[in-house]
Design brief:
This protein is of the alpha/beta class and about 220 residues long. The protein has one domain (about 5-220): TIM Barrel (Alpha-Beta Barrel). It contains seven helices and ten strands. Helix 1 (about 10-20) runs parallel beside helix 7 (about 205-220). It is globular.
Amino acid sequence: MVAIKVCGITRLEDALACLSLGVDAIGFIFYPQSLRFITPEEAKKIIHEMEKVGFLSPRERNIFSSRRRPAICGVFVNEDIKKVEAVMSFCGLDFVQFHGTESPQYVKVFPPSKVIKNFPLHNREDLSLLPLYLIHAALIDAYHPHLFGGTGTKADWDLAREAKKYHPIILSGGIKAENVSNAIHIVAPEAIDVNSGVEISPGVKDKKKIEEIVTLAKEL
């Protein structure tokens, strides 16, 4: 079964909705220039409240290990390594997700089992970057010359399918209810990452849209 990650969480009610719907992972964006930016202090409060509510029964996972709550991912863009390590410890992150131009040497500082690296594939030559990284998964997103994700633009699914030769794949980029079934059929990723496709406005999620994605993904 394809795992589901909801990124750009900024509100407790959205995190709790993900918990109740059986979402596999949620992402907090610690990049100040993002419309969905959240401070480590705010994220920690949400995580704490999620744990107070009580855990769900363990579920079989795909790319994310079986756990009693969604895996917690922290998204960083070209951030200082020491700061990333501090936020990991402070928030108790399960994964770090790098969305900038971080080098293989930069990423190597972190345990591969905890790292997701974003690859906004523009052309076939970009695929040569993937085997250089020791990571848990590659997040394949749409290419944009100036923005680090969150564009709502569909990724190149043909390139995403080829990227599976190198790493487990999380497919991102404009995933929503209208195209999630096709995305899964064509790419067969280990997980999908949704953000703007389940929002009312940046950082404000729509529970019904999340539920629709979860239902469609589980039917496949």
